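Let us practice reading a record.
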Amino acid sequence: MSPERPVDVSLLVPAKDEAENLPEFVKLCGEHLGGRTFSFEVVIVNDGSRDRSADVLRELQGKYDFLRVVTHRRQRG
């Protein structure tokens, strides 16, 4: 998605220690929201995860242009 293009729908998702689930979740978001008449983004807030969530999200950002990531170094709730 181009940064100049306005976003019609933003999906905000909190995540803590979800490294195993994130790839499937993001894939399903793309499958179910992609191809619609509206533009969208999925914003995942990594809330102080201690597993590989941050690494997984970095990898997924390279694959899915609709994915945005916010990372908190420690849990903020």
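A brief commentary: The first helix runs from residue 22 to 33.
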